[in-house]
Amino acid sequence: MIDLIHVTKHFGDAVAVDDISLSVARGELCVLVGTSGCGKSTTLRMINRLIEHSEGEIHIDGQQIREFREESLRRRMGYAIQSTGLFPHWTVARNIGLVPRLLKWPAARIQARVEELMALLGLDLEEFADKYPHQLSGGQAQRVGVARALAADPDILLMDEPFGALDPLTREGLQEELRELQGRLEKTIVFVTHDMDEALRLADHLVVMHQGRIKQQGRPLELLREPADAFVESLLGGEGRGLKEAALLPVSQRMLPLGPRLLARERIGQQASLREALSLMLWRHAERLTVVDDDDLPVGELSLRRLVGVRSDD
Ligand SMILES: Nc1ncnc2c1ncn2[C@@H]1O[C@H](COP(=O)(O)OP(=O)(O)OP(=O)(O)O)[C@@H](O)[C@H]1O
């Protein structure tokens, strides 16, 4: 759906993005990650033409972005940024309705859309609709920013560290919501972050950049297991990759069917990650866990040996 083909961006003599090629399929969540100044934001902004690329081609659905009228390009793309970019003298509701108003939707339709989005992002209408940005917490403001990006129902979302300034708990909550929204609304998302845990948690397609170039791209597990070079390996966490991989794999993948032994006392859900299972084992000094389904019924067991990847339990 989004194709960058040998794209380069110069700022004067400096090369910010250097001959990158990248394809994002419809409905995919693509995360650009890398060290500061490696060209992530520039790449994102070239897609909606906030920055014009210098060389190469950028296509949306096979058509060059330069052939789109700017308005129709922006209508297809929501854009959310870390600083939220909310207008300080506008209420939450007015901020969210910005793009529909620019598109001259009738007032009743804008109102309905604002209400729908506030509900979707867990912002209580009564409480927040008439508040101003300075009356919001960081997390609430970021939700408003994401709601605004979704307002005209774009099929593409471009997100530049949208959860950057949040505490880890709020951030994890919003990451989960984003994944759920993506599944439900079938958006194609390009997401920029420098937080590797966030990148691994969110990405279908992970792109590692360094000094304007793409070092490696693929599925998160592929990159974790086979980093292309020492730089990618260390960015992905070096020796810490074991825990990062465990965070991506569900317990159900390693559990064994219930055996004749007594059920282990400690329980874990089958959707929990292997990392959570390991943490529970450490915390409870347990080498075996009973795996339960959503109704808390035992469906299997997980031993430490299985968890760490020893094939047989003997
Ligand atoms: N408008 C501009 N004029 C000149 N140089 C720029 C401009 N915008 C970005 N750059 C340079 O291009 C390079 C890439 O910047 P970019 O903002 O894309 O990096 P980034 O990976 O998003 O970094 P960060 O994680 O720090 O936000 C940097 O060296 C930056 O200084």
UniProtKB/TrEMBL annotation:
Residues 2-236 form the ABC transporter domain. The keyword Transport applies. This is ABC transporter ATP-binding protein. SUPFAM superfamilies: CBS-domain pair, P-loop containing nucleoside triphosphate hydrolases. The keyword Cell membrane does not apply. InterPro entries: AAA+_ATPase, ABC_transporter-like_ATP-bd, ABC_transporter-like_CS, CBS_dom_sf, P-loop_NTPase. Pfam families: ABC_tran (PF00005). GO terms for biological process: quaternary ammonium group transport. One of its GO terms (molecular function) is ATP hydrolysis activity.
